[in-house]
Amino acid sequence: MPEEDRPSEQTSAKSPPGTGSVSDVRLLAAQLFNDVWRLMEVDKRTTKDDDLMIHTAHASRYHWGQVPDATPHNLARGEWQISRVYCVLGRAEPAMHHARRVLDICEENDIGDFDLAYAYEALARAHAVAGHPEEARRYTDSALSAAGNITDDDDRDLLIADLETIPGQPRYW
What we know:
The structure is a single chain. The protein is mostly helical. It folds into two domains: 20-70; 91-173. It is 67% helix and 0% strand. The chain has helices at 22-40, 47-66, 72-88, 92-108, 113-129, 133-147, 153-163. Helix 1 packs antiparallel against helix 2.
């Protein structure tokens, strides 16, 4: 999934992040989102790193919810990231919960394209982590079907590459 809406170089916080300015909350949410990615890429995380990754993912999603003009896409991507963090940590139940929230947000807001395909990817990955290979495959099939509606070729390629990393699921398409 691409990095969350990064502020332009022209956007600068006029006060410390989280102190009330809309641009500050947006900046904080995006920074936290990106911090989670950095933590996920650490090869040998400590328990403290894992806890920080969980808290940071939840904090990012919380702050996106505080941005008055945040879109449902922002919220879905925040839920997706939380699900992914729990998958990385092998925690199926919270991964499943947040993956389901991604799909709920997409369905409630008629979101398709990239975000819908990633809702299915999150569910496939969470089911794989939970040891449900049939469900993982079913949601992978849904993600592959939704991939046909992704308008950007790079986004479609990113989804396919992520599907190939679902644990215990060899490429079958």
